[in-house]
Write a structure and sequence with these properties.
Elements lengths: L1 H63 L2 H9 L3 H16 L3 E5 L5 E6 L16 H13 L7 E7 L2 E9 L3 H5 L12 E7 L2 H10 L4 E4 L6 E7 L5 E8 L4 H33 L1 H65 L8 H31 L7 E5 L4 H14 L3 E6 L4 E5 H17 L6 E9 L3 E8 L32 H11 L3 E7 L3 E9 L9
Helix pairs in contact: 1-7, 8-9, 9-12, 10-11, 11-12
Length: about 550
């Protein structure tokens, strides 16, 4: 019996000491893991904050580098145009709190705010705010030679705002990088977004972050500073996450864990004694184990079927995430990396090498913006939230601009562009969206073409009451088995997915935008010989009921 007691004691002490050492090891791993997670969260949130500044700067640039907008806003003072394209559109589409246009003397030219029904306090006398005036002056200082929009974090009346700024600049002035600007180019567009808790709640959902608290308590979270353009602290965010799981178990269930351990030890002693004293109990346990094995096998078969279905869904998700991660991360890393190098030395004249970095930053940023805009446009179209500014025009009017925007890309691949505008009939469409459709198809025709190939695009009368726009290339063509899927969102051919950049939303966006403007899209393709896309729109006739 003494021998049995020693065996039993040894049987109990060995696993207890083993568990103690394992517990110490696991606690150390948990601490290192928590530290790594906090660092990753902090870096990711900093990237999100910078991305918000980039977003508002891009919007400001888009709405100020637009000749038609300058004429209608500054000279004609078209109130309806300003309301639909500067005021309501920016507020409804991007969730801005207010938009403001300042004159060259920093006087209010026009201002739009969110509806008073929203119950949100609106900052007063924005045009008199010294910080906003300085931001406007900075925007004027770089225009039109470098009229890119800019973004800032700013505090106004104790509220944090995300401010975008851009000086109105004629496209030809910007393209020629003029040293001087015209008087009208001193007007500046400012956009303001209140970064309140609702704003951070949306970011929390958008980026799947733990809860973000603006200027909240930091006892159980990670504090991330928000800085102005000079690096001064304006405010801070707190990333609230779960407590250390091991610590939570000890604090909340320590007594239960100790009790359970004692029960298990007592049960083990009882089982050992019983197994030595009673052979019958051993046989019952064996029988029970056999029965449990049968139950486990039956359950395993059921789980295998469910697991196969889950794996199938997971594979589809993985393909999507892999594609999006590659396409978004590469240009973003280029932007952030080279931008960080530039920030290291702000006060010296840029060398040729540094200028080359700027070019690479611009290229990566434009690619990323194009991808993001395509995805956002597709989401807006599919949800029915797309705004169309319909006007009557000749389709051939957009060809010259499209040709200019794609000729550099075509020249790099030795592609010959041939424009054949053969119809003078009018169509009623959104000019900017029509140009977006044609540019998308032209870019595809160049990207999926062969070196030294041709791209022919034009318009012609199609029947009595229609105008047909077409874009034809001499590229690789579309496989027969892929033709029924090319308009599906995020579909990309296996032949080119690793060689040619893109997300696979372009053709889906083309189809949705065309149909939204009353047109249809179709194509013809022969493998190895090329593809032709057709856009058919009703011709506008004075007595036609089509609008």
């Amino acid at each position: 019996m003494n021998f049995l007691s020693k065996q039993t004691l040894g049987f109990l002490l060995i696993p207890i000491f083993t568990l103690m050492f394992m517990g110490i090891f696991v606690m150390d791993l948990v601490k290192k893991h928590d530290l790594a997670i906090e660092q990753e969260r902090s870096q990711f949130l900093q990237a999100v904050l910078k991305n918000q500044i980039l977003d508002v700067s891009v919007v400001a640039h888009e709405f100020t580098l637009w000749d038609e907008a300058i004429n209608k806003v500054i000279f004609e003072r078209d109130q309806e145009f300003m309301d639909e394209n500067i005021g309501s559109y920016l507020i409804d589409t991007y969730g801005y709190t207010a938009t403001l246009i300042l004159t060259d003397a920093n006087e209010k030219f026009v201002r739009f705010d969110v509806s008073e029904d929203d119950g949100q306090p609106i900052p007063h006398k924005l045009a008199e705010n010294k910080q906003l005036q300085q931001i406007a002056q900075t925007a004027r200082a770089v225009a039109p030679k470098s009229a890119r929009g800019s973004g800032y974090w700013l505090k106004i009346e104790d509220d944090l705002y995300l401010v975008g700024a851009g000086a109105f600049t004629y496209e030809d002035s910007y393209e020629q990088k003029s040293e001087s600007r015209k008087e009208v180019e001193n007007y500046v567009l400012l956009t303001l977004t209140r970064a309140d808790q609702v704003f951070w709640d949306k970011l929390t959902t958008q980026f799947s972050l733990p809860y973000l608290a603006w200027e909240g308590p930091v006892e159980n979270g990670l504090k991330v500073e928000i800085k102005d353009s000079l690096g001064n602290d304006l405010s801070y965010l707190v990333i609230s996450g779960p407590n250390n799981p091991v610590q939570s178990i000890i604090e909340n269930y320590g007594v239960a864990v100790v009790a359970m351990t004692l029960i298990l030890i007592g049960f083990a002693l009882f089982s050992i004694k019983r197994s030595l004293d009673y052979k019958k109990a051993h046989d019952e346990v064996v029988t029970l184990n056999k029965h449990m094995d049968e139950l486990v096998k039956a359950r395993t078969d059921e789980l295998a079927i469910a697991l196969e279905a889950a794996n199938e869904a997971s594979r589809a998700k993985s393909v999507f995430l892999s594609s999006m991660s590659h396409e978004f991360r590469t240009p973003l890393n280029g932007i952030l990396g080279f931008n960080q190098l530039l920030r290291l030395d702000k006060n010296r004249t840029l060398t040729e090498k540094e200028k080359d970095w700027i070019s690479q930053i611009q290229a990566a940023g434009e690619l990323l913006l194009s991808l993001v805009n395509d995805v956002l446009d597709l989401a807006h179209v599919e949800s029915g939230r797309i705004n169309l500014n319909m006007e009557k025009l000749q389709a051939r009017e957009v060809f010259k601009n499209c040709c200019e925007l794609t000729k550099q890309m075509a020249a790099e691949k030795g592609i010959t562009l041939k424009a054949k505008p053969e119809s003078d009939k009018l169509v009623e469409v959104d000019r900017r969206r029509l140009q977006q459709i044609i540019l998308n198809l032209l870019n595809n025709a160049i990207k999926y073409n062969k070196e030294g190939g041709d791209v022919v695009f034009g318009c012609k009368n199609h029947g009595k009451d229609q105008i047909r726009l077409y874009i034809a290339d001499t590229g690789y063509g579309i496989l027969d088995e892929e033709k029924e899927n090319i308009f599906d969102p995020f579909f990309r051919s296996d032949r080119h997915s690793s060689e040619i950049e893109g997300t696979g939303v372009g053709l889906s966006l083309v189809q949705h935008l065309t149909e939204a403007m009353g047109g249809t899209v179709s194509f013809e393709s022969e493998e190895g010989k090329g593809t032709t896309f057709y856009l058919d729109f009703p011709a506008y006739l004075p007595n036609n009921s089509h609008t």
